[in-house]
Specification:
Helix 4 runs parallel beside helix 15. It is globular, with a radius of gyration of 20 Å. The protein has a single domain, classed as Alpha-Beta Barrel (TIM Barrel). It starts with 6 loop residues before the first helix and ends in a 19-residue tail after the last helix. The strands form two sheets. It has an eight-stranded parallel sheet. Strands 1-2 form a two-stranded antiparallel sheet. It is an alpha/beta fold.
Length: about 375
């Protein structure tokens, strides 16, 4: 077993252990993948100011996201098909997040259902991410199921009314259900560890949808339904309706523009996430970390601002925090850990990020995450 000290170590191991079809699904962007790459690389150009001879004892990364206590300003992002990176992946991710003391967000397009995750974590509160479908009756029941499962926040994704073109998925035959090519079938045969895990679980379909929609009883009928269901007509009036139906904490995901940030404030949401869907939607859009400061300047005093996209280390978390994000989300960093080593890998990813965050904060002269601001960054690099 290799020594794991970075998220990159987990990525390399996940690539070996997860079938190419599902690894590529997680580790890719749309079109030329320029935004996907910029999300990560734009963090690197932001430089830190090292401070010395300051008391570094009694450090704390604990804070709050939407009023909930968190061990560090990090949540696990909603990621589709998580249960295909590793058997029962959503349950394992939620358990690791619970142990660590950070929020776990379950995707509408998860393999394990809302009820599976609630049962697998002894009804510990988690967050639920909602995609708006044309079938409003299904959406109402989905929101009610999230309430019944003790979900403590609803994350409404606004940037997937239509699907960005992801070349790797098309080439691998990734659809619902998958239409694997000969190459992907041969590749599946080289992943016995993954295959044994999948044989040991009954969760192979989209658990939030199959059996919960009239006429969708299997993966075949699901394909037809999902192709017609993402709603290109989604608008701010729908946000108001969802907020009313939900009645709890609401986070809006997918804000990249100042005008949309102002509309998010007017919607009455509790927080917004500066996000370009991990570079999986509009290729050529600005990276999340570059978009963050202007949105903080525009509406940061009126709504809690979070961000996702490109976070591969605790240093990235600290830089986002310095630029005004009250919380951050990890998607790929979480999936690499899950694909590499299951629940243990997710815990390892969280430990790596926390340690990097804690040490970097100390090197920058701070012992409490609440005091971190732009002063830790080198002027002219952000």
């Amino acid at each position: 077993m290799p020594v794991i000290t970075t998220i990159e170590d987990l990525r390399v191991l996940a690539k070996k252990r997860v079938p190419r079809m599902f690894y590529d699904y997680a580790d890719s962007g749309s079109w030329t993948e320029s935004t996907y790459r910029a999300n990560e690389s734009d963090f690197q150009s932001i430089k830190l100011r090292q401070r010395v001879a300051v008391n570094m004892e009694n450090r704390s990364t604990a804070t709050q996201m939407i009023g909930q206590n968190v061990a560090m300003p990090v949540a696990i992002a909603p990621t589709g098909l998580t249960g295909m990176q590793h058997a029962d992946g959503e349950i394992l991710g939620a358990r690791a997040a619970k142990k660590f003391g950070i929020p776990f967000t379950l995707s509408t397009m998860s393999i394990c259902s809302i009820e599976d995750v609630a049962a697998g974590t002894d009804r510990h509160p988690f967050w639920f991410q909602l995609y708006v479908m044309k079938d409003r009756d299904f959406i109402e029941r989905l929101i009610d199921r999230a309430k019944a499962a003790n979900c403590s926040a609803l994350v409404l994704t606004l940037d997937l009314q239509i699907l960005g073109q992801r070349h790797k998925d098309l080439k691998n035959g990734l659809s619902a259900p998958p239409k694997p090519t000969l190459a992907t079938i041969l590749n599946l045969m080289t992943k016995p560890r993954w295959g044994l895990g999948m044989l040991g679980t009954k969760r192979h379909g989209f658990g939030n949808i199959v059996g919960h929609v009239k006429g969708v009883e299997n993966m075949g009928s699901l394909s037809e339904w999902t192709a017609k269901q993402f709603d290109p007509g989604l608008n701010w009036g729908d946000v108001e309706w969802i907020k009313k139906r939900w009645g709890g904490k609401l986070i809006l995901k997918g804000i990249q523009d100042m005008e949309d940030a102002k509309l998010a404030v007017n919607s009455g949401a509790d927080a917004l996430i500066v996000s370009n869907h991990g570079g999986r939607q509009l290729d050529g859009a600005e990276s999340s970390i570059r978009a963050l400061p202007q949105i903080v300047d525009a509406v940061g005093s009126q709504i809690e601002i979070h961000m996702d996209g490109g976070i591969r280390s605790g240093q990235d978390v600290l830089k986002a925090r310095a630029l005004g994000a009250k919380g951050t989300y990890i998607g790929r960093s979480f999936l690499y850990g899950l694909g590499a080593m299951g629940e243990e890998g997710v815990s390892k990813a969280l430990q790596i990020i926390h340690r990097e965050l804690d040490l970097t904060m100390a090197f920058c002269g701070h012992t409490n995450i609440e005091t971190v601001n732009k002063g830790i960054l080198l002027p002219g690099t952000y």
